[in-house]
What we know:
By secondary structure, the chain is of the alpha/beta class. It has helices spanning 12-23, 56-63, 83-103, 143-156, 177-186, 205-218, 237-245, 258-275, 283-290, 299-305, 313-326, and strands at 3-7, 27-32, 47-50, 70-73, 110-114, 162-167, 169-171, 189-193, 199-200, 202-204, 224-227, 233-234, 252-256. Helix 1 (12-23) packs across helix 6 (205-218), helix 2 (56-63) packs across helix 3 and helix 3 (83-103) runs parallel beside helix 4. The radius of gyration is 20 Å and the shape is globular.
Amino acid sequence: xxxxxxxxxxxxxxxxxxxxxLNRNMEVWAAVRKSSSREYLQDPRIHLLELNLSSPGQLRxxxxxQRFDYVVHAAGVTKCLHKKDFFRVNVDGTRNLVEALQELExxxxxxxxxxxxxxxxxxxxxxxxxxxxxxxxxQPNTAxxxxxxxxxxxxxxxxxxxxxxxxxxxxxxxxxxxxxMAKSIKQHMDFSVGFKRQDITFVYVRDVxxxxxxALDHGKTGxxxxxxxGQVYQxxxxxxxxxxxxxxxxxxxxxxxxxxxxxxxFCGEYVAHLTGKITALNNDKYNIxxxxxxxxxxxxxxxxxxxxxAYDLERGVKETMAWYKDNKxx
Length: 330
């Protein structure tokens, strides 16, 4: 059996990668922290491995007696109270893992890193909006995007056979951020920002997993691939589909100007620092929602990986809402 290590295995995307690796009869090692939830890691075939990505010495000890054919690095943070924490977790954690694998001379066939479209920031914002190409120069405008780009650079400086995947907005069962939107719509409120047209892209979690295993099999070392469902949507499309799946409850649709969002997120970040509690209403959120162009070109993934998205937004939202209902989230 081929042996795979999956970091971030208890998280949203990581838990689906674990399931697919089991379906492929791989020997699955799920990297977790002591505090990690085991809710989606109940299959007895899963080997749990506690890894401290923040401690280089301890990490080498934890990996010393292991040999893996593949590593999928899905661990990371998307929200932090302090900007430095993005770099501590997303960059230093990646560097520590990469250096440990190199020092232990791990005989890897492939190392797949889950990055993000956010590494490119607000480029190509002119109308008509153009797709972001791999040859464009990244200009991340969020702390999260900057940390992911820096983590990519760690891999570029390594000797590992790495492949970078850059998904756009990932949604699906177990996901908690888009769930907030669904919960708000169920409670009769839909909130959007900006009056200028916004082009948005999405990718369903199972399509991300498909790309992960294609990259493990024959992704080109050193290459980066954008992931979306191949379509472009307008800002209201996602909420419209959620509204439909929830049985069309009455709702109040509010479209606020960008300047109001700036005030809200500024106050949200200020309160977060006072209380010590992470909030979704922060400066990163402002830059993400302000951005009008989230187009990306997935043709290289189609041609080189054989990536074939199975879920458009309508199908993906239908399955996601069904899962939320079945699991009593909604």
